[in-house]
């Protein structure tokens, strides 16, 4: 099963230094039954993109919570054994937790399939989205429009061997 772990650039640097994403338990995103039902698609690539997008939104929340963090969303895609990631059955159909899974232990960075990171030109929109997140959560439509602006930026794909350049 592929899971998408939301991080920040400093979190990616820490994971690179430790050789693992963790410690556990970790919150990640994956193609869960709830996500399948919500997205109404059988196309696994579309479903994985939806899970990646959910992880990118969680990365934005991490960025918003740390004013010193670089304003670039980070998601690490990691392949884990079936059963290593468990969806919370009490939150399975909650819109806020679609695709969310829990992983009990740290994940070896060597098992990562890819790293997804915003391009430099996304920083301005990600910064604005992070600043507007609280108001968007309270129902402010203008703030939600600003948050959605960060989603207009596609995360770039990087191989695990490129992490040193990303964090350097």
SSE layout and pairings?
Blueprint: E1 2-7, H1 9-18, E2 20-21, E3 26-29, H2 33-39, H3 44-64, E4 74-79, E5 85-86, E6 100-103, E7 107-108, E8 112-117, H4 123-137, H5 141-151, E9 156-158, H6 163-167
Antiparallel strand pairs: 1-4, 2-7, 3-6, 4-8, 5-6, 8-9
Helix pairs in contact: 3-4, 4-5
Quick tags:
168 residues, 9 strands, four-stranded antiparallel beta sheet, three-stranded antiparallel beta sheet, alpha+beta
Brief sketch in words of this structure:
This protein has six helices and nine strands; from the N terminus they run βαββααβββββααβα. It has 168 residues and is an alpha+beta fold. Helices cover 41% and strands 21% of the residues.
SSE run: EHEEHHEEEEEHHEH
Strand content: 15-25%
Q: What's the number of extended β-strand segments?
A: 9
Described by strand count, sense and barrel closure, the largest sheet is: 4 strands, antiparallel
* Strand adjacency order, main sheet: 1-4-8-9
Distance between the termini: 30 Å
Any idea what the radius of gyration is? 15 Å
Are there runs of 5+ residues with pLDDT below 50, and where?
none
> What is the overall pLDDT average?
91
Mass-distribution shape? globular
Helix/strand structural class: alpha+beta
The helix content is: 40-55%
Helical run tally: 6
Commentary on this structure:
This protein is an alpha+beta fold and 168 residues long. The strands form three sheets. The protein has a four-stranded antiparallel sheet. The protein has a three-stranded antiparallel sheet with strand order 3-6-5. The two termini are 30 Å apart. It is built from six helices and nine strands.
């Amino acid at each position: 099963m592929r899971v998408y772990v939301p991080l920040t650039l400093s979190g990616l640097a820490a994971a690179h230094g430790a050789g693992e994403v963790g410690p556990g338990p970790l919150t990640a995103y994956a193609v869960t039954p709830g996500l399948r039902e919500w997205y109404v698609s059988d196309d696994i690539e579309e479903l994985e993109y939806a899970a990646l997008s959910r992880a990118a939104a969680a990365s934005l929340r991490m960025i918003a919570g740390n004013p010193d963090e670089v304003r670039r969303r980070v998601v690490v895609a990691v392949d884990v054994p079936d059963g290593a990631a468990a969806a919370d059955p009490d939150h399975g159909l909650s819109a806020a937790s679609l695709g969310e899974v829990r992983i009990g232990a740290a994940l070896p960075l060597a098992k990562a399939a890819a790293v997804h990171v915003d391009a430099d030109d996304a920083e301005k929109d990600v910064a604005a989205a992070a600043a507007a997140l609280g108001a968007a959560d309270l129902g402010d439509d203008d703030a939600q429009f600003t948050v959605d602006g960060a989603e207009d930026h596609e995360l770039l794909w990087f191989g695990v061997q490129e992490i040193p350049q990303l964090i350097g």
